[in-house]
TrEMBL record:
<feature type="transmembrane region" description="Helical">
    <location>
        <begin position="103"/>
        <end position="123"/>
    </location>
</feature>
<keyword id="KW-0812">Transmembrane</keyword>
<dbReference type="InterPro" id="IPR010721">
    <property type="entry name" value="UstE-like"/>
</dbReference>
<dbReference type="Pfam" id="PF06966">
    <property type="entry name" value="DUF1295"/>
</dbReference>
<feature type="transmembrane region" description="Helical">
    <location>
        <begin position="68"/>
        <end position="91"/>
    </location>
</feature>
<protein>
    <recommendedName>
        <fullName>Steroid 5-alpha reductase C-terminal domain-containing protein</fullName>
    </recommendedName>
</protein>
<keyword id="KW-1133">Transmembrane helix</keyword>
<keyword id="KW-0472">Membrane</keyword>
<feature type="transmembrane region" description="Helical">
    <location>
        <begin position="37"/>
        <end position="56"/>
    </location>
</feature>
Length: 200
């Protein structure tokens, strides 16, 4: 919100030699005082934070050490901030003039974001319910959404991160996000999880 409202994101783009979009004062009544396109970006960041906080406080049964929690929060903050800054760079922004109308890629981005966020959240809720039953102690969960894919939670994360990127900066940045997440999950996260499950 601060990056948009203070125009610090636009000033950063200009400092780096790019052409920034100046966010006009809005006549449209929004709670945040931003045009709808930019108000939605703030809501996307808020939704991603709310999902992560819910996971950490209500779903996860593992202790989250402070250094790991700081890294996780910083990682998500950096990605959200990059999306926000790209939304005010004239070369990458997915904003219509004045930020008042929506495009097809924005609509697809919102659909991917909503589907992915729900998928990541709900599959974890299903797994927690399964694990709360004492009869399932130590058993792997392969029902519900996890019946569709072993790592459906990573798939959900990839969907919403890609949708968020597409909404803010259209297809090129969404492609970079998909490539980054696929590489990270396939090279690090999934093999680590598979090893953990095999050891159990």
């Amino acid at each position: 919100y601060y990056l948009l409202r203070s125009n610090i994101g636009a000033r950063l783009i200009q400092y780096l030699g790019g052409t920034a979009i100046t966010i006009p004062p809005t006549n449209t009544a929004t709670v945040l005082g931003l045009p709808p396109y930019y108000a939605t970006i703030v809501l996307l960041a808020t939704g991603s934070a709310a999902k992560q906080i819910y996971w950490a406080t209500r779903i996860s049964e593992q202790v989250l050490p402070p250094p790991f929690a700081i890294i996780l929060a910083a990682y998500n903050t950096v990605l959200n901030s990059i999306n926000t800054i790209l939304s005010v760079w004239a070369w990458s922004s997915n904003s219509a003039p004045g930020g008042s109308s929506y495009s097809l890629t924005q609509g697809i981005g919102l659909l991917l974001y909503g589907t992915g966020l729900f998928t990541e959240w709900y599959c974890e809720v299903q797994r927690k319910r399964f694990k709360q039953d004492p009869r399932n102690q130590g058993k792997p969960y392969s029902g519900g959404l996890f019946g569709l894919a072993t790592n459906i939670n990573y798939g959900g994360y990839t969907l919403w991160r890609t949708g968020y990127a597409m909404y803010c900066a259209s297809l090129p940045w969404a492609g970079v996000m998909v490539a980054w997440l696929a590489g990270d999950f396939c090279g690090r996260a999934i093999p680590s999880m598979e090893g953990y499950c095999q050891n159990k």
